[in-house]
Amino acid sequence: MTYEFRTLHFLGAALLMLSLIGCVPSPPAFKNTDVTGADCCKDFHLTDHNGKVRTLADFRGKALVMFFGYTQCPDVCPTTMMEMTAVLQQLGKDAPRVQMLFVTVDPERDTRELLASYVPAFDRSFLGLYGDMETTARTAKEFRVFYQKQPGSTPTSYTVDHTAGSYVFDPQGRVRLFARYGDGGANLAADLRTLLKQEN
After folding, report:
1. pTM of this prediction?
2. For residues 145-174, b (16+ Cβ closer than 10 Å) or e, as one string?
């Protein structure tokens, strides 16, 4: 094999590799933090405010937004829920393909009845989820969510410091994003549109 032939052979192989690389779709550019492949958020077993036990598999086929908070939260939680209401409005006809879950980190006070009153007040499609103290702690650990009581003036008037962001799952049930708190919802709406367009 001559030097010229080997060179042409090498160049041809290199061009073929470049063309194949060009055929591989680039990953989507998300506006929120991409956590695709994270070793967490695998599943949960919690009860919704209608009394039905839920797992991640129940929501396959929909993009899922999962937020950890509590009903007596003075600011972060209601703001997040209102932003999520705005997100659904921005999504228009795609809104039914998104499910919002509010997971309480205050199972001592957030009863099923209270969640059933609080959560759907923002949007009728939203679901509140709860577990006992042990289940709540286990779920928070799986989702790497921090929460801690802060004493109030009475034993029942405490507040709870907690992670102020939401996890986003694609319709196949895979965790894909960590959505930051307080951006108004526009970035989350854009990212949800991206996820809903993906087939696999």
Report:
1. 0.85
2. bebeeeeeeeeeeeebebbbbbbbbbbebb
